[in-house]
Amino acid sequence: MTTITTTDLAGAVEDVAAHLYVWALKDIPQDLRDALAAARDRETSTTGIRILETIHRNVSIADEQKNLVCQDTGIAVYTCRVGEHFPLHPARIYASLKAGTARATVEHPLRSNAVHVLTRENTGPNVGHRLPIVHWEFIPDWDGLDVKCVPKGSGSENMSFLKMCVPADGVSGIKKFVLESIVDAGGKPCPPGIVGVGIGGSADYAMYLAKEAIARPVGTRNADPLVAQLEDELYGLLNETGIGPMGLGGDVTVLQCHIEHADTHMTLNPVAVNYQCWAARRASAHIAADGSVDFDREF
């Protein structure tokens, strides 16, 4: 466990952002490593086995050289759980996350991926207008701050899908859309990865939920038993598609399927799918009100 203590909270948040961005890109979580090892053990396709062994060699080399597991450093997406008594305003938190992202990009250095959406001109060290992206959750009666960084590369993020199903489509309509989305994606998002499904809320919130789903520890299940049952069913169905590692055929198309859900309007049934490639990168930290940081606490 790494712990730092500082009275400069803005500086602590900046340091955490810089550390999490690089850490996520270089050191994939143990639960993902275990899932990749299990995938290699159960894959029967010769090509699929070779691809999964190459992925393992890729991870080993990244560990040995303390380097990135993928050349695409993505854009940094943060989720912040802010206690109502945390002594730093969210505006200052955002400024520190932005400064930390830019600092990490320059100091490592990382590839600068951020561009203006129309001119395609590079906007600098992975920051720009409304970049990095930050999702917020505010927690009552708490004085801490949790920060999670999920770098999103283009291959997986391009394979995002949204459908406004109607209530009459029911659960079968949800399953059909998820399966069709992953079959359409094929090998483009570098499978096997994590399929995140967001159900409910509104169109934009369903996509946010799908992204939260891909950032859960691999194989964890939704607390709602009905949703957990759907996760199990979709996980099995997706691996029956035969898409396989890198879309070249095989038994292992996805490492897991996670679902996050919200209640919705009686006439709505939004369903979003977000894909995270095999290098399903994530890193998180907890910052206490006194400035101490715990990098072992995941949320």
UniProtKB/TrEMBL annotation:
GO terms for molecular function: 4 iron, 4 sulfur cluster binding; lyase activity; metal ion binding. Keywords: 4Fe-4S, Iron, Iron-sulfur, Lyase, Metal-binding. Signal peptide: none annotated. Residues 17-285 form the Fe-S hydro-lyase tartrate dehydratase alpha-type catalytic domain. InterPro entries: Class-I_Fumarase/Tartrate_DH, Fe-S_hydro-lyase_TtdA-typ_cat. It comes from the Bacteria. It holds the Pfam family Fumerase. Belongs to the class-I fumarase family. This is TtdA-fumA-fumB: Fe-S-type hydrolyase. It comes from Gaiella occulta.
